[in-house]
Design a protein that fits this description.
single chain, 5-stranded mixed beta sheet, alpha+beta, flat
Length: 793
């Protein structure tokens, strides 16, 4: 009782809307429960129908596979027995494999059937048959057993509840007929083998098959009892009018006598039994199609029923919801109208029209709302007049608490001030526009006085302004130059400027060169520099300038020509000097070897020979620079061990330079496909460079290692060092810092030549140094097949 009182108290506290919702919600939930129970039952029927269709499709695929295996077994048996029919046996493999693959794909549950149906040994049996490794009986035994096992994959569709008519009869008949086909095919194959081989074991074969034939007869009886009348009639016609009749008669006689007579030979029996089996398969196919069509139609019917039921359910729920909603809206209509009227008044709306109400509390409330609306209407009319600019309308608040009246009075004062300010702003804007107009005129005057050509283009590339310098240069009018008219003066080879296109696409500054035709018809080179214009961060085009650089480019070309002539002179001079220098060196070496070391002139000859060697290196460097500039330097790539080059280079340097000690930290083992002489030249240049610029430090450190598929070699000295801002200059030709030019001899070509050689080998060369502490020069060569380099253990 206490619980009931609590529920009643709780129900009283609920709103009217909540109570009305409960009235419709409880029966609606019950209706939904019953509907979903029915819906789930129909879905289960659909699932059963869908599964039956899948089983029907599986049965068709299983039967195709059995037929393929039966044909392959016959050909394999003939080959094992008489060593013929191999082509037929081998050609059947593709069809059998295709049927296995199709069976796996048509039904996901049969994926991997080879592992549990003896098919995993099919390839091995084929190989053994091909190599004559199996006797004929073993061949037939394997294929018969495999077919028998696969026959169990031929599942029967489930019987349908509530549909016990013809479709269930067809399903039962289909199962019995499928078993009849399997057993008859096995019996016929074994009878064929006996006829084919004229086997003396015919009696034994019959004793082995008699059980299968009895099973076949039981399935035939089951078919005659359970199949539909139409299917039974069709079978009887086949039984009496097709090849099945003599086959069954022959089998009945053979199993009664337990002997196989000569009524048929192997070929006649194969054709006759094959025709009989084909008739049964045609009946099975017909029955399968009937079942499949029936199931498909039932599935479509059930789907339509489920969809219709779902549609009706939605309609019913919508009607229930609409009915409940309409009832709630009708009961609460009067209260909602008054609430809306109050809300309109709250936001300042006036001129409300209320429905008639009875003389009760609701009616009194409606009268009060109507009175409030009338007073607000008077204030609204005053506000509209003020909004139209009539500030003479009187606004008298009804008291201190009349917030709306006081607000309108305040609005009147503020609008008067705003209107006056607006007029003042309009005058100021007009003056500003006049100032902008004057600024534009002033800009154009300045632009016309500059010595450069100035132009402006919009976001689409069309020119919107050019100064007078352009008009003087091109001879075009201002109007003709606008848009794309200026392109008439642009040289045709410069009209597809990729720099300009890329800049416009990215809205970035750009600098380029192009040729324009002047008023005299002469093309002049112009240097173009332009910057983008943005209006509130939106791209609005470009403003740029053009300067005539024709004379400057001609001067640069003249300098290039002089440098080319200089290179030619150095090449000729080097060649001319090399021949006499070689003779001088040979005579001096001969003199040096034949002189007595006690001779006073011996030291002078030694110094002369040293200077000749230095001069020879300078001339060789000049020749290499000449070849590099002309692209004629030769490279002879070959495989050689790097450690051998490093050791020989260090030993040769030690023989010549006795004032410095070389410390080798590590020797990388790598076989290089490179020009050995050129790589040795780079290594010697770095050693000589280290010795040259470290006269007071006698230790030079050589290191080599493999890193990130690259061979890295470094030569470190402890000499004068190089400032960081000179690092990238030391590999330029004829370069030398102010300190080195004043204190060390040389043309500054060794590092330039080394850099070009390393680049030709797809490598890198660089320096790390600090003034006063020494320098470390590095070069690295890529390892890999593409660079023809390899790492060696």
């Amino acid at each position: 009782m206490i619980q009931l009182n609590r529920l009643a108290s709780l129900f009283k506290k609920l709103s009217l809307q909540a109570k009305l919702i409960l009235i419709g919600l409880i029966p609606s939930l019950f209706f939904l429960y019953v509907s979903f129970q029915f819906y789930n039952g129909e879905k289960e029927k659909l699932a059963l129908l869908h599964n039956n269709i899948r089983i029907i499709n599986r049965a068709a695929a299983v039967n195709r596979l059995i037929e393929s295996l039966r044909a392959e077994g016959r050909f394999g048996y003939e080959f094992a027995l008489k060593k013929d029919q191999y082509d037929s046996f081998a050609n059947q493999w593709k069809q059998t494999d295709s049927d296995i693959t199709h069976l796996e794909k048509t039904d996901p549950e049969l994926k991997g059937i080879k592992t549990y149906t003896l098919l995993d040994g099919l390839d091995g049996v084929r190989k053994n048959i091909t190599r004559h490794g199996l006797v004929p009986d073993a061949v037939m035994g394997y294929y018969t057993t495999t077919i028998f096992r696969i026959s169990y994959l031929d599942a029967t569709p489930e019987l349908l509840m509530g549909n016990s008519g013809k479709v269930n009869q067809d399903i039962r008949g289909l199962k019995a007929l499928s078993e009849m086909n399997i057993y008859l095919a096995i019996i016929n194959s074994n009878i064929y083998n006996v006829l084919y081989t004229h086997s003396k074991y015919a009696v034994g074969t019959l004793y082995g098959l008699v059980g299968l034939y009895q099973v076949y007869n039981t399935f035939e009886k089951e078919f005659m009892l359970k199949a539909s009348p139409g299917s039974i009639q069709s079978y009887r016609q086949i039984r009496q009018n097709s090849a099945l009749k003599p086959v069954i008669s022959y089998l009945d006689g053979a199993f009664k006598r337990m002997n196989i007579d000569s009524t048929y030979n192997d070929k006649q029996w194969w054709k006759l039994s094959g025709d009989a089996t084909e008739q049964l398969k045609m009946l099975q196919f017909k029955l399968t199609s009937q079942v499949n069509n029936t199931l498909v139609n039932l599935e479509a019917s059930e789907e339509t029923k489920v969809n219709n039921w779902l549609f009706l359910l939605i309609i019913c729920m919508a009607l229930i919801a609409a009915t409940v909603s309409y009832t709630i809206m009708d009961i609460r209509a009067s209260l909602i109208e008054l609430r809306k009227a109050s809300e309109k008044i709250a936001v300042g709306d006036t001129g409300l029209t209320l429905s008639p109400y009875s003389n009760d509390v609701v009616g009194s409330l409606a009268g009060s709302i109507a009175k409030i609306d009338k007073n607000n209407k008077m204030l609204a009319d005053a506000a509209n007049a003020i909004g139209s600019g009539n500030f003479d309308v009187p606004v008298i608040p009804r008291g201190y608490t009349d917030l709306l009246g006081n607000a309108i009075a305040q609005m009147k004062d503020e609008l008067q001030r705003f209107t006056a300010q607006k007029l003042a702003d309009a005058l100021e804007l007009e003056e500003l526009l006049e100032t902008v107009k004057q600024s534009e005129t002033y800009f154009r005057q300045i632009a016309d006085q500059t010595p450069f050509i100035i132009w402006q283009a919009n976001a689409k590339g069309g020119v919107t302004y050019v100064n007078s310098k352009w008009i003087e240069f091109s001879g075009m009018t201002f109007q003709d130059s606008l848009g794309l008219g200026w392109m008439l003066t642009l040289h045709t080879d410069d009209q597809e400027n990729k720099v300009l296109v890329k800049a416009f696409a990215g809205h970035v500054p750009y600098t380029t060169k192009a040729r324009f035709k002047n008023v005299n018809g002469e093309y002049r080179w112009m240097h173009i520099q332009s910057n983008p214009i943005f209006d509130k961060k939106v791209f609005d085009g470009y403003i740029g300038s053009m300067t005539d650089i024709t004379d400057q480019m001609a001067a640069e070309q003249a300098i290039l020509d002089l440098m080319h002539k200089k290179d030619e002179f150095l090449s000729i001079a080097s060649h001319e000097l090399k021949t006499p220098l070689t003779s001088i060196k040979a005579y001096t070496q001969l003199l040096y070897k034949n002189m007595d070391s006690a001779d006073k002139s011996f030291s002078f000859v030694a110094k002369t020979l040293k200077h000749i060697t230095r001069l020879e290196k300078l001339i060789n460097d000049l020749l290499d620079v000449s070849r590099i500039n002309s692209g004629q330097i030769d490279y002879d790539f070959d495989v050689f061990p790097f450690e051998e080059l490093l050791k020989q280079g260090v030993e040769s340097f030690a023989d010549i330079e006795s004032n410095h000690k070389i410390t080798v930290k590590n020797i990388a083992k790598a076989n290089l496909m490179a020009d050995r002489n050129r790589i040795e030249q780079v290594f010697n240049n770095l050693l000589n460079n280290a010795a040259k610029y470290s006269p007071r430090a006698d230790n030079i450190i050589v290191n080599s290692f493999i890193k990130n598929d690259h061979l890295v070699v470094s030569v470190q000295d402890h000499g004068i060092g190089i400032a960081e801002n000179d690092w990238h200059h030391v590999f330029e030709r004829f370069y030398g810092s102010e300190k080195t030019l004043n204190n060390f001899q040389g043309l500054g070509l060794g590092l330039f030549i080394s850099s070009e050689i390393i680049k030709r080998h797809k490598g890198e060369i660089w320096v790390e140094s600090k003034p006063g502490t020494g320098s470390t020069f590095y070069f690295k060569l890529p390892l890999g097949s593409d660079q023809r380099l390899e790492i060696r253990d």
